[in-house]
Design brief:
With about 350 residues, the protein is α+β, with helices and mostly antiparallel strands. It has two domains: about 15-110, 2-Layer Sandwich (Phosphorylase Kinase, domain 1), CATH 3.30.200; about 120-359, Alpha-Beta Complex (Aminoglycoside 3'-phosphotransferase, Chain: A, domain 2), CATH 3.90.1200.10. It is built from eleven helices and eleven strands. The chain has helices at about 15-25, 70, 75-85, 125-145, 175-190, 210-220, 265-280, 285-300, 310-330, 330-335, 340-359; strands at about 30-35, 40-50, 50-60, 90-95, 105-110, 155-160, 160-165, 230-235, 245, 250-255, 260-265. A five-stranded antiparallel β-sheet has the order 1-2-3-5-4, sandwiched between helices. Strands 7-6-11-8 form a four-stranded antiparallel β-sheet. The relative contact order is 0.14.
């Protein structure tokens, strides 16, 4: 998956200095290195502080893909995770929800050493990859133990505090099966129109022939699923691109991207993590099963409430995996924007094989 959009030049050097001063008035910016990754503004800064120089990260919401009420949640969620778990996250040096002239929200984070391996996890040794997978199970177990939450939906900020949103764009659900159904149908609707990013689609009708089959499958399976577990905090985008990893050992130095966190049942988060993380380098079946076993054993061992992978939970995970696949199909034009036509066709073939095996 790729969300590279080029270096963000929408925030001037002067604005960077203003943002830092708004959060830490006694810090001075010495250098600015803009990131080429992501959709919003991210820059690594060298700053002078009263206690010495340090390296920090400045993030500001500049794109239209994440609503401000959701983006405001990220630094608060990082602080929550730091307080309540051992999941490695950057220190938060401060944030501003509102500003009259600067892009908002914006916040300062600790710069954590490590490398991301999105699309290149094969560069890690097998032992290092296993360590990443086992850490993922442990981290998600700790995160899920931070709940329960009152409803399923999107986590954002209301009246200055973290909350499950309830808006037209981000509705709140008492039953996550209804949310799953709506999500699947939204993805299928998008496939009929070229995906979620039709302006990027080289073939807007790439999956149109599958939509009737997909709808029939969703109709026959989702609402008949066993009752879900209570919702909790879910990092739905737990993948190599959001991890800072020690390339030699596979130790996860930091888990990133806490915006767009969901309130959902653990089975939902586990299915998405297995889809994005375990299958990252297109492993053979035996390797994939070994990773899945390591991930699930680590998760079960780290939960504090005797949580196990029951048949009902596995059934729901399969449905969530199907929904995650539908989302990936609808996002193909964006995630593979820089791929060759042959590479995009190969991704399409993989999606079609999955659908054939499940419907």
């Amino acid at each position: 998956m790729s969300d590279t959009r080029g270096v963000d030049e929408t925030v001037s050097d002067a604005a960077v200095h203003e943002m830092v001063a708004a959060i830490r008035p006694n810090w001075t910016v010495r250098s600015i290195q803009r990131s080429e990754l992501g959709t919003d503004f991210v820059a690594t800064l060298d700053v002078d502080t009263p206690t010495g120089g340090r390296c920090v990260v400045l993030k500001a919401t500049t794109a239209d893909l994440v609503a401000a009420e959701i983006a405001r949640a990220e630094p608060r969620l990082i602080e929550l995770v730091a307080r309540g778990t051992s999941i490695p996250v950057p220190d938060v040096y401060g944030y501003r929800d509102h500003h009259e002239t600067l892009p908002e929200p914006f916040y300062l984070l600790e710069h954590v050493p490590g490398e991301t391996f999105e699309g290149d996890s094969g560069a890690l040794s097998a032992a290092a990859q296993t360590r990443v997978v086992e850490a993922a199970g442990e981290h998600l177990a700790e995160l899920h133990d931070c709940g329960p939450l009152p409803a399923a939906g999107t986590v954002g900020v209301r009246d200055g505090d973290l909350a499950v949103l309830d808006t037209d764009e981000h509705p709140r659900y008492d039953d996550e099966r209804e949310r799953l159904y709506d999500s699947c149908m939204e993805s299928i609707d998008a496939l009929e129109d070229g995906g979620f990013f039709p302006e990027l689609a080289d073939d807007p009708e790439r999956f149109v022939d599958l939509t009737d089959t997909l709808r029939e499958h969703v109709e026959s399976t989702v609402r008949a699923l066993p009752e879900p577990d209570p919702p909790t905090y879910c990092h739905w985008d737990y993948r190599y691109g959001n991890l800072l990893v020690d390339p030699d050992t596979g130790a996860t130095n930091a888990v990133l991207d806490w915006a767009n966190l969901d309130a959902g049942e653990p089975a939902h988060n586990l299915a998405s993590a297995e889809f994005y993380l375990l299958d990252a380098d297109d492993p053979d079946d035996a390797t994939l099963e070994a990773r899945r076993g390591a991930f699930r054993r680590a998760y079960e061992a780290a939960r504090t409430d005797d949580w196990t992978f029951t048949d009902d939970r596995r059934e729901r995970m399969a449905a969530y995996e199907f929904a995650t696949r539908l989302g990936a199909m609808a996002c193909l034009p964006l995630w593979h924007e820089d791929a060759t036509p042959a590479e995009r066709d190969a991704v399409e073939a993989d999606h079609r094989a999955f659908v054939r095996n499940r419907t």
